[in-house]
Amino acid sequence: MDKSSYMNVAKAWEFIEDRAFSRQTMQSARVRQEAEEAEMPQGSAAQAEFLGLLLRMLGASSVIAVGTGSIVETLQLIDALDGKGQVTAVDSSSQGIGLIRKTFNNLSDRTQTTLRAVNAEAGVFLPRLNAEMYDLIVVCGDAANYASTFEQAPRLLNNHGVIVFTDVLAMDPPDSNGGILNPADRSNKAQAMRNLLDEVQSDERFRTALIPVGTGLLLASKQ
To answer: Are 65 and 88 in contact (CB under 8 A)?
Structure first.
């Protein structure tokens, strides 16, 4: 690709994100604003839209959302369940889990989906869950969430279950200095994502794809 092609790719990403942002429901827009006002940056609108579609394509009914303040993603997953199933939200931030619970309480009279919201580290809580009971796991937020969740994924996912890692390029604030695209970025997130890519894509128990949605999504399907 030449320089003009790369510029067009950047413009395409902006177009896609703007379009997805304009398609958000009023509730999603409100939740995004509330989370960001609480200094919990949210993932891209296109990413949230993709995760909802992926859940529907998988026919998932049991989902784990791991993330520090990943309010919009969790809401999108709840919406995509169409009133069925269960979302288990695991968040090491008490503020984040509180906002997830508040958001769900506003929905509870309109959905039969159940929410289990747990304020805990992923590495502490996930080993307590039953094996092969989950269709989809989505990982967001702090660098510490990723390796500890992937360690449990082969046990937790059912056959052909999928785990999705967001912000694999480590470009989300606050400490990003270009993420893994910048070899000089030695932040915790950037280093964790470099290691994660190598570990997940070399694991023969999974088929994987790295795709340019949001700030990079890594999908791994259990074989």
So the answer is: yes
Task: Tell how strand 134-139 and strand 114-119 pair up.
Answer: unpaired
Which H, E and C letters describe the chain, residue by residue?
A: CCHHHHHHHHHHHHHHHHHHHHCCCHHHHHHHHHHHHCCCCCCCHHHHHHHHHHHHHHCCCEEEEECCCCHHHHHHHHHHCCCCCEEEEEECCHHHHHHHHHHHHCCHHHCCCEEEEEECCHHHHHHHCCCCCEEEEEECCCCHHHHHHHHHHHHHEEEEEEEEECCCCCCCCCCCCCHHHCCCCCCHHHHHHHHHHHHHHCCCCEEEEEECCCCCEEEEEEC
Residue with tokens 């259990």: 222
pLDDT of 184-199, one tens digit each?
999 999 999 999 999 9
Contacts of 25 (CB under 8 A, 6+ apart): 79
In percent, how much of the chain has pLDDT > 70?
A: 95
